[in-house]
Specification:
Layout (H helix, E strand, L loop, with lengths): L1 E2 L7 E2 L23 E2 L4 H15 L4 H14 L7 H4 L12 H14 L3 H15 L9 E2 L2 E2 L16 H9 L5 H8 L29 H8 L7 H6 L6 H8 L2 H15 L10 E2 L7 H10 L9
Antiparallel strand pairs: 1-2, 3-5, 4-6
Helix pairs in contact: 1-5, 2-4, 2-5, 4-5, 7-11, 8-10
Length: about 300
């Protein structure tokens, strides 16, 4: 969630919740007003990955903004690029994303690819280059839309946990998914939740994709914690998942990738998308490592 404001996703990662709601594989009712579909040529996306991989090295502010952007694009209208194309970046609920939106809009134009795909692909690159970051899928072929999403749908850090979970349940996310996605705060800082403490990290290792966010938020030792994160540590719907991830990098990595891969296709027909995951940084090395492991060996350690 890498959030930087009083809006849960404006600050950084995601939140989700159990229950029904719109499936992440369904077509969005308002995701195609512009009718623009992305290039699905993976060779093009390999060039994008090389470009952005350099920009995101070190898991700093540019990477954090890229990881945060999908939450703001997908949560309220499906993953359709309206965060940028519908001029949603200027909203208070998306505070702090202006530079990210400008960068990704520029890159989409430079490489002649879709904006919705650029938002999701850039985040996948950023996660991959952050130390210990897992490899999520990079599917392309979403349909862009310039129709703005309804304002006020992005969860805020002061919202009740049930409300946050409910908004993510509406896009097919369970409570366990929410807690896993919120873990992206491990690479987050805040600027707007409490301006007097702007720049404070959400755990002691903001440039590393580790589980200290969970343990330090629970213990009250993180440099800064959002109210929603603190309350998730002991809420009956989220405490179990929180404790499990705090003690296992592998458990979190597995849950995060599963939740992320489903969340970033909300409002799209997954079967129509092309898998360009092999274009992500480190893909060749990780494939080789996987082939060298005994059958059933864990992908994360």
């Amino acid at each position: 969630m890498l959030f930087q404001s009083a809006i849960l996703f404006t600050l950084g990662a995601a939140a989700a919740a159990g229950g029904g709601g719109r499936s992440s594989t369904s077509s969005s009712s308002s995701s195609s007003s512009s009718g623009s579909s992305s290039s699905t040529d993976c060779s093009t996306w390999s060039r994008v990955a090389s470009d952005l991989g350099t920009t995101f090295q070190g898991c700093g502010p540019a990477a954090r903004g890229a990881i945060r952007a999908p939450f703001h694009d997908c949560i309220n209208n499906g993953c359709d690029g309206s965060l940028i194309l519908g001029d949603e970046c200027g909203r208070s609920e998306n505070a702090g994303l202006t530079a990210t939106c400008a960068l990704l809009a520029e890159k989409a134009k430079q490489y002649s690819v879709g904006t919705a795909d650029m938002i999701q692909f850039a985040a996948a690159v950023a996660i991959a280059v952050c130390p210990l970051g897992p490899r999520v899928k990079a599917l392309v072929g979403r349909t862009d839309s310039s129709t703005p999403a309804e304002e006020g749908q992005v969860p805020a850090t002061k919202d009740p946990i049930d409300s946050i979970l409910g908004k993510f349940a509406a896009v097919g996310m369970s409570a366990n998914d929410v807690v896993a996605l919120v873990g992206s705060h491990t690479a987050g800082t805040q600027s707007f939740d409490d301006p007097s403490q702007a720049g404070k990290a959400l755990d002691s290792t903001p440039s590393k994709w580790d589980v200290k966010f969970y343990s330090e938020t629970k213990a009250g030792t993180a440099p800064y914690s959002f109210s929603s994160d603190r309350r998730m540590t002991n809420d009956s719907s989220t405490e179990g998942s929180w404790n499990r991830f705090a003690h296992s990098q592998g458990a979190w990595a597995s849950a995060f990738t599963s939740a992320w891969d489903r969340f970033v296709v909300v409002g799209n027909d997954v079967d129509s998308l092309n898998d360009c995951s092999s274009s992500l940084p480190g893909s060749s090395r990780r494939r080789a490592e996987g082939m060298s492991r005994p059958m059933g060996a864990g992908a994360f350690h």
